[in-house]
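Ops channel
N.P.: pipeline sanity check, posting one input/output pair.
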């Protein structure tokens, strides 16, 4: 179980880091360029330059050890985890203050999240700023879902605590029902991944049933997407059609289902699932992070390729810190049972 907690944390971190350099590429652009780079001569300058542009997805060696950066996804996941480790339950003011303490603008925050964190930093109440976004509708970006894995791990035994945690941590920045629903779905997927073991008899449809039991009554777009996922899973061989139907954008309802599908489509390999997810294009770091969280909680930290782990940035609040944080959450989880 410790390995699964670490996997859920570092899965987010790795998926984020793999996706960061190629964020904003469309699926077609990414496919073309990956195909082109594989045909360039091994020792050519053109190949080295293109690989340097694409980062971990094309060649992990382009990053010296301890240098591949994470983005806001991992930074905010760290905030969720720090608060849970310290408080042992959802504590809004504490979690919001950790988001603000960790806030480094250059990590690539969404415009809404940036506004919320800046407002809280300037003294606005932690539970007020999020609801002001988008003319009072609140954000339906995927920011509440991208960071939720510690909540999924923490509450993997209890669907009620899980829902409470997932929704409340989202609401600090995302109060739109679709933003909240995405966080609930992603947390449920991580929780169910934590509850199940990889093996030959793994059944994606039973996994999906369990996810739906852990996240009942989601807004309609999620219910349609879950139905689509069932349809795509029956498609053999799988195609990229899912990309068009599910989407991989910055909006929660157009990226959380895609991340779940990427895991279910390739449930036997962390690396394959994350690579596939990032290759969907568009919001690559977040779809990568969310797929990585699910696959990491399922396969465990020990299944994450060493070539990716070694590359991750390892300064303050880097790789070693994040592994330690996962261990602390696990220790507290055990102590509290
Ligand atoms: O959701 P969020 O924290 O970040 C999402 C993505 C991730 O990929 C991060 O890594 C980062 O790159 O951004 O950021 P928000 O700003 O809350 O939401 C993201 C975007 O979704 C916004 O900038 C809007 O374009 C859009 N959006 C909305 N547009 C109109 N009306 C979200 N909610 C609304 C809305 O209600
Ligand atoms: Mg990001």
């Amino acid at each position: 179980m410790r390995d699964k907690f670490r996997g859920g944390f570092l899965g987010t971190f790795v998926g984020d880091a793999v996706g960061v350099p190629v964020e904003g590429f469309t699926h077609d652009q990414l496919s073309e360029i990956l195909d082109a780079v594989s045909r360039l001569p091994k020792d050519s300058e053109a190949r080295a330059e293109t690989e340097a542009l694409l980062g971990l997805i094309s060649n992990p060696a382009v990053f010296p050890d301890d240098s591949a950066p994470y983005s806001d996804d991992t930074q905010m996941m760290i905030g969720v985890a720090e608060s849970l480790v310290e408080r042992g339950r959802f504590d809004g003011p504490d979690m919001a203050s950790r988001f603000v303490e960790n806030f480094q603008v250059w990590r690539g925050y969404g415009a809404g999240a940036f506004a919320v964190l800046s407002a809280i930093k300037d003294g606005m109440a932690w539970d007020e700023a999020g609801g002001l976004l988008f003319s009072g509708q609140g954000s339906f970006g995927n920011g509440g879902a991208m960071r939720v894995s510690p909540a999924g791990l923490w509450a993997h035994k209890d669907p009620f605590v899980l829902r409470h945690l997932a929704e409340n941590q989202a609401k600090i920045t995302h109060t739109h029902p679709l933003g909240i629903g995405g966080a609930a779905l992603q947390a449920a997927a991580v929780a169910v991944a934590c509850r199940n073991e990889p093996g030959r008899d793994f059944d994606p449809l039973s996994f999906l049933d369990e996810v739906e039991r852990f996240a009942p009554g989601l807004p309609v777009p999620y219910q349609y997407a879950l139905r689509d996922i069932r349809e795509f899973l029956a498609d053999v061989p799988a195609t990229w059609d899912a990309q068009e139907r599910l989407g991989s954008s910055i909006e929660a309802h157009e990226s959380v289902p895609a991340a779940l599908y990427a895991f279910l489509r390739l449930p036997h390999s962390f690396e394959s699932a994350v690579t596939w997810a990032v290759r969907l294009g568009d919001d690559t770091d977040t779809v990568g992070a969310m797929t990585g969280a699910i696959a990491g909680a399922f396969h465990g930290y020990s299944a994450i390729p060493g070539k990716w782990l070694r590359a991750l940035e390892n300064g303050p609040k880097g790789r070693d810190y994040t592994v330690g944080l996962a261990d602390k959450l696990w220790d507290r989880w055990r102590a509290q049972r």
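N.P.: looks fine end to end. Residues 2-26+68-91+140-336 form a domain with the ADP-ribosylglycohydrolase fold fold (CATH 1.10.4080.10).
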